[in-house]
Design goal:
mainly beta, 1 helix, single chain, 3% helix, 30% strand
Amino acid sequence: MDEGADGTDRTWHGIPENGYNPHAWIIGEPAIGEGVWIGAFTVIDGSGGLSIGDGCDVSAGVHIYSHSTVARCVSGRSRSIERADTSIGAHVYLGANAVVLMGARIGDHSVVAAGAVVREHTVAPPYSLLKGVPAVVVKDGARKYGPV
C-alpha cells in the first residue's frame, strides 16, 4: 500500500473491468444498447442515469456525464452533487474528445463532432449535427450521412 501523509491509500487500483474497452472508465450502471463501440480513454458516467442507444460509436477520449460537482465545489461543499438523466439515441456518432454534459438528450442518427462540448440539458432532435464549443445544434446536419 502506498500511504499518503494523512494515512489514505494512494495505490492506483486500475479502471474497473467492462465489456467494451479495457481503457474506458464506466461509472454507475448506464444502459448501453447492442452493438455499441466504445474507444479508449473514455469516461462513461451513469451515476445520474444514462442511456446509450443501439449501434453508437463513442470515439477515443469522449466523456459523457450524468452528474456535476460544480455547485458542490464552489459552495464550499454546502450544496450536493447534481445529477440529471442523460440520453444518447441509437446510431449516434460521438467524435474524438467530445464532451456531453449531464441532462443532454441527443436524438437518433446524430453526430457530435470531435472536440464538441454539449452543454447541460441540450436537446438535439434526430439527425442533428452538434459542433463547436459550446456545441451548436444544426438540425438535419447529419442527414447527409443517412442511408444511401
